[in-house]
Amino acid sequence: MTLFFSGATGAFYDDGLWSADLPADVVEVTPQDHAALMAAVATGKILQAGPDGAPVAVDPPSPSTEALASRARRRRDAEIAGLRYLVERHRDELALGLTTTLTTEDFLSVLHHIQALRDVPEQAAFPTDIDWPVLPPELIAAPD
Predict the structure, then answer these.
(1) pTM reported for the whole predicted model
(2) CB count in 10 Å sphere of residue 141
(3) Residue 120 per-residue DSSP state
(4) Which residues contact 7 (CB under 8 A, 6 or more apart)?
(5) I want to staple 55 with a disulfide (CB 3.0 to 4.6 A). Which of 5, 107, 109, 120 is the partner?
């Protein structure tokens, strides 16, 4: 069994298992080097071909500004969706003439928090440095 790595495919090949032709750019990799590379991949590194074609583990590239913005908007949307029940419960309780679970002040705090989440993309350093608004945990705790 001999292990090979192809920079073109980013894959390892075991000649004892691989019956097709190997890519033209393969380089031999020792089992020890393969194990070390796989351990590096398990920590988040990615593999690429070094100058001599041998595999090297490197840090993955930083996400693009667009990817960071998309990730931040998904987080914002999820946080807003997770708070909708507080708004709906309060409005339902008012419509039914029930005593509300939230005080008027707490309800307004939730609404201001949701608006602050909506405004996250307007922050000057968005999307690379976001000051995420924080709602006091006691407002989202389940009522007794």
Answers:
(1) 0.66
(2) 8
(3) G
(4) 25, 48, 49, 53, 55
(5) 5
The owner of tokens 């298992």 is 17
* Measured distance CA(46)–CA(40) in Å, rounded: 8
Distance CA 37, CA 43 (A): 10
CB-CB neighbours of 5 under 10 Å: 24
- List, for residues 78-120, the tens digit of each pLDDT value: 999 999 999 999 999 999 999 999 999 999 999 999 999 999 9
Place of tokens 């969706």: 81
Q: Exposure pattern of 64-102 as b/e (b: 16+ CB <10 Å)?
A: eeeebbeebeeebeebeeebeebeebbeeeeeeeeeeeb
